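Why do we bother with holo predictions? Because pocket geometry can differ from the apo form. Keep that in mind while you read this record for zinc ion.
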Amino acid sequence: METNSFLDLHTHTRYPGKTFIKAQDIEIAAKNGGYSEILAMPNSAKIIDSIENLLEAKRFDEVLDIKVHRTGSLTKGLLGKEPINYKEFIGHGVFIFTDDGLSVVDDALAEEIFKSLKFENGAVFQHCEKSCHTSPGDIAPPNDGGILKPIPVSEETEILERDLNLVEKYGTRYHAQHLSTEESVRLIKEAKMNKLPVTAEVTPHHLLINNTNIETSNGMYKMYPPIRTSRDQLALIEGLKEGTIDVISTDHAPHTIESKQRAFKDAARGVVGLESAFPMLYSSEIFSLDELERYLDKNPRKILSELGYELKKSNSFKWEFCDKKFYTNSNPKNSLFEGRKTLIETNGVHV
Ligand SMILES: [Zn+2]
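The structure, written out:
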């Protein structure tokens, strides 16, 4: 079977800066998963909040056999206090700004940012998490295990709702990253009905797992946003199918296995996803091939090219049918899907 190569709107490259993986590890994970292009989040070891750091990142990107598109942070040092120089970044072909991993929580600052990015013709990509700078939680209710801090639905929706009001006020291009709740789907649906310039994404793990399947003793399940109820999971699937959510993005987040094998409260947040996304989504049989090509290829390409990014011509990617278990071949292997049944494989990736 052949598909077009995919474009991921949400990858954490970790480089530039001193980090435990190489740029080539991202390239291998992407190519194993059928991706030829990725959008890199700015929370790398060196934060992409200056042109100097952007150019350093690009020097690594340029030698890879995948195309890496860049974003800038919304605020200096991702601290949520002071905007960066958006105009300078746009002059270097970067049109998307995000503090991913954190939110812009301060309302007055958010208003200033939405206003200036409308003026500069840039886009806000927001990770919605109200307590990120003060007291981030551990897990979605009701799986609190006693000592874990719950992450209520409002952690996501309060920021999303505020942002959508700012989009309505200023007309700024807005993209909601990795949504996890039924209420968020409803808010995006309403915004789209009001013709606001809004798109949204969801991760494979929020589509394929719900909190009846998660183990609070296993740090691999620690992530933000948290895996929520089956009702939220169904709303996210429905949101994609009806066109409210546009894209499936991996939120590929490399972490050392040691940092994931800690007690849930102390484990690092996030999982890798580039290599597992298509095999796991396809094998779930929830979506048709046509639908998956829309969420992994056509819609993310449309979003980036409309914002001004120059895309690579997509190539085709070959998959073999199988009936095996999936194992991540690239490094690191902090995946939620190790040992899951897969119906397709790429050369030498699965056993
Ligand atoms: Zn995020």
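The first strand starts at residue 2 and ends at 4.
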